[in-house]
Every structure is written in structure tokens, then in C-alpha cells.
Amino acid sequence: MKQQQVTNREVKQEAVGLLNEMKMLSERSNQTYEREEKLVRQNHRLEEQVDEWKSRYARAKAQLRTLRSSSPPLQQADMGQVAKAGDLIQEDGLVQDIHVTRFQVAVDELLRNARTSEAESVLPAVRQVVVAVRQISQASGEPSKEETAQQISKLKAKVSATANNLITASKNFAASKGLSPVSLLDAATSHLTTAVVELIRLVKIHPSPVDALDGEEEENSVIA
């Protein structure tokens, strides 16, 4: 009888120990889950801040381009830049300068992400490039002159083809975990950029007023 009581006491103590251990593990699990949730929220806030600063940078760069094209140069070295910008920036241009800037920013980010340790980061970056290209292509419109319309149609088809090639190159780069040569991604980006520049040279850039640039922030947040 005494031996049975000892055994029961040992079993009870062991059960209590197991329950306490399970309780500790549960508390640790809850703490880990709460910590992960907090990190996710912080990461989301940081991503929103990055998107906001990208939008601000794009608007500031577009405003600077407009200022350079509309203001007399202060130094002789700036004359070439103003003249070059003046050839592309016109009041009757079809593509807004903010869309051109957004394309430049997106391409820069894509090439930068391709050189990080996270090969998959090129996928969201290439999506932003595609959004910017679509905005430029849609803004190009269809002019009344048949000859110009044919030229624009041909260049838009080239832009579309090179954009598809860049998407494929980005997917291959991400799938290979960065083992695919980054030079292939660079080449696809270069071909797309050349096609976009050719299109912009034909349709020209329209300088956006400051209030229009401010309105772009809301549109950019929706796209992102």
C-alpha cells in the first residue's frame, strides 16, 4: 500500500511537471507569435514609407526637370542639359514627365535589386517597371497624322516586346536564385530603355504643373 502511494505521488509530480512545461512552451509560443506579428507590422510600415519616399523622389525629379527646361541656365555647363531637355519637353508633349521619372526610378531599383542577395526581389521591381511602361505607352495615344500614328504604333509594339523580354529575364533570374548572369537582365533592361526613349523622342514629354504632380501621389499609392 505504501509503495502504491509513493508511485501515485511520483506520477502526480511528473504530471504536474509536464503541465508546467507545456504551459511554459505555450507562453513562449505566444510571445514568439506576438513578436512575429510586431515585426510584420513594422515591415509593412517600412514598405509604405519606402513607397512614399519613392513617390516624393519621382515628383521632385520631375519638378527639377521642368524647372531646368523653363528657366535660363546660370552656368555655361548647364546649357547643353537645358537644350537637350528642351528638345524632348514640350507643352504639347503626350507623356507626362512624372511617368518618365517613375520609369527611371523603377529601372534603377530593378538593377539595384538584381545585385543584392535576394534574387526574388527583382519580381516586385520589374512589376513597377511594367506599370511605368504601361503609363508611357497609354499616354502616347494615337495622333491624327497617319504617318506619325504608324511610327508610334511600331514603337509601342517594340516597347511591348522588349518589356515582355525583361519580364522573362527577371523571372528566369529569380527562379535561378541569382545563378543566371545579371548581364542578361542588364541587356533586357537596356533594350527596353532604348525602345522607351525612342518612343518618347517621337511623342515628347509634357511638363506637369506642381498641383498635378501632387495629385500623382495618390495615384501612385493605388498602383503600388
Describe the structure.
With 224 residues, this protein is mainly alpha-helical. It has helices spanning 2-70, 79-88, 97-113, 122-140, 146-175, 182-203, 210-223; strands at residues 95-96, 205-206. A two-stranded parallel ribbon has the order 1-2. Helix 1 crosses helix 2, helix 1 packs antiparallel against helix 7 and helix 5 runs antiparallel to helix 6 (182-203). The longest helix is centred in the N-terminal third of the chain and has 69 residues, at 2-70. It is elongated. The N and C termini lie far apart (75 Å). Mean pLDDT is 77; it is low at 67-85 and 217-224.
- Provide the residue-averaged pLDDT: 77
User: N-to-C SSE series?
Assistant: HHEHHHHEH
Low-confidence stretches: 67-85, 217-224
Largest sheet composition: 2 strands, parallel
> Based on helices, strands and strand pairing, what is the structural class?
mainly alpha
Strand order of the largest sheet: 1-2
Helix content: over 70%
Radius of gyration: 28 Å
Number of helices, where a helix is a run of at least 4 consecutive DSSP H or I residues = 7
Intertermini distance: 75 Å
Q: Characterize the overall form.
A: elongated
What proportion of the residues form beta strands (DSSP E)? under 5%
Number of beta-strand segments? 2
Quick overview:
With 224 residues, the protein is mainly α.
Question: Which characteristics define this entry?
Answer:
elongated, 224 residues, two-stranded parallel ribbon
